[in-house]
Each structure stands twice: as C-alpha cells, then as structure tokens.
Amino acid sequence: MEDAKHKVARAALDELPGRGIIGLGSGSTANLFVEELGARVRAGLAIVGVPTSESTRALATRAGIPLLDDEGPWEIDVNVDGADEVSAALDLIKGGGAAHAREKIVNFAAKRNVVIVDASKLSTRLGERWAVPVEVLPFAHGTTCAHLARLGEPRLRVRPEGPVRTDAGNLIYDVAAGPIDDPGRLDRALRAIPGVVETGLFVGRADVVLVAEKAGVRRLVRGG
Ligand code: 5RP
C-alpha cells in the first residue's frame, strides 16, 4: 500500500506546470506528494504552495516549499489532493483527515484538480465504502445531529482522547448514507442544515484521478 501511494504521489509531479501556484492536499498520500514536491523545489522548481491543513503547512514548511498566506484569493494552477472514495463518475468523498472544508476551498480556487489514490479507493457509487464526513459547529451540535439523522446515520467522530476537532475547532459527524444515488442532491441537503460548515462530498470537482495499480498508474479524466 505504501508503495502504491509513493508511486501515485510521484506520478502527480508530471501534472504540474514548470512554475506557478500549487494546492497542497492533506492525508498520507498527499503528504508523500508534498515531500516529492519539496525535493523538486530544493532542486530549483519555482512553485509556491497553498496548504489545506495545519499538518500540511508544517510538512511543506519543513520540505522547503514557500507558501502563500491563508487569506486568498489565490490563482491556483493545479491542486493535488487525496480522497477516501472515488466513484465511477469521478465524484469524491473526502474528509478522512477532517480537512475537507479547507480542501474544498482550495479545490474550488484551482484551475485544475488532480486526485491521487490507490485502487482500494474506487467504487461504483459513493457511500459504498465510506460515510460522508460533515464538519459542524460545536454549538448545538446535538440539534444539528438530529437534522443529519433525517439524511443518514450520523456518528460523532471520536478518538480515545475525545471528539475529533478540525483545524477550525469544529466537530465531525460521519453520516452513513450510501450507496448514494445523487451525491449533488445529498450535498445540498446537508449544507442546508444550520450548523453544517462543509461536507466531504466533492461532486464534479476532480479533473484527473491518478490511480496506483499493480501494473502502474492509471490516469482517469473527467468526461474522458
Ligand atoms: C483528508 C482527506 C484525505 O485526502 C483523505 O482522507 C485520503 O487520505 P489518505 O491519502 O491518507 O488515504 O480528505 O481530509
């Protein structure tokens, strides 16, 4: 598995321009990409990054990648990020690392989005493998949860040390609702609930998906 992640992280370097602004995703696969990119930057590649989480910021800084500030607006040329699940339509579930709110902002600010996964992440319809991560405000989260329960089975994400907090200090509910027939409709319904900050449904937001397989890296193109 680690080998597959390395392979696809390296393949993503071929998707980058010779210079420009690069969105830096979060998660173990995106981390490997950031490390590979750092080596290129140290060798002279003229790129600047926009990190999607505090952990990616720390990693990119250690790797020597110059970063833009958090305010935006940015003109991101290519954003490279991982995913938890990729459907046949190349829609995504993200948020396994609780970073999907920033990840979605950076995704929408990019001219092109490249997603890097191994073959275990592929499904026919979203929700076959993963629940949908939903970031919610801590205030009245029990009430928000009751609304979420009309759309699926929400479960508060908890670690032994307590509830998971996002970089913004919010909570995560993983809402099991799969398999999902219409992810765009579910995304809109979830986002209409007061207290919901962002969902992990990325519908129509991947231009290229690179999939690490035994034989090599398969390149899937949206609409291709
Ligand atoms: C973080 C994400 C990650 O991209 C997703 O969880 C995939 O992570 P990994 O590459 O470790 O499997 O959405 O919020």
> Count of DSSP helices?
6
Euclidean distance between termini CA atoms: 27 Å
- The helix content is 25-40%
Largest sheet, spatial ordering of strands: 2-1-3-6-14-15
CATH topology of the largest domain: Rossmann fold
Provide the domain count.
2
The succession of helices and strands, N to C, reads HEHEHEEEHEEHEEEEHEEEE
User: Could you describe the largest sheet, including whether it forms a barrel?
Assistant: 6 strands, mixed
Rg, nearest Å: 17 Å
Strand element count: 15
* Overall geometry: globular
Write down the CATH class of the largest domain. Answer: Alpha Beta
Could you please describe the fold and organization of this structure?
By secondary structure, this protein is an alpha/beta fold. The chain has 2 domains: 2-124 and 203-215, Rossmann fold (3-Layer(aba) Sandwich); 132-198, 2-Layer Sandwich (Alpha-Beta Plaits). The chain has helices spanning 2-12, 28-42, 54-63, 100-108, 141-148, 183-191, and strands at 19-24, 46-51, 76-81, 85-86, 92-93, 110-118, 132-136, 153-156, 158-159, 162-163, 171-176, 196-199, 201-202, 208-213, 216-221. A 6-stranded mixed beta sheet has the order 2-1-3-6-14-15, with helices on both faces. Strands 8-11-7-12 form a 4-stranded antiparallel beta sheet. The chain has a 3-stranded antiparallel beta sheet with strand order 4-5-13, with helices on one face. The longest helix is centred in the N-terminal third of the chain and has 15 residues, at 28-42. The radius of gyration is 17 Å and the shape is globular. The mean pLDDT is 97. The structure holds ribulose-5-phosphate. The site of ribulose-5-phosphate has 18 residues, from helix 2 and helix 4.
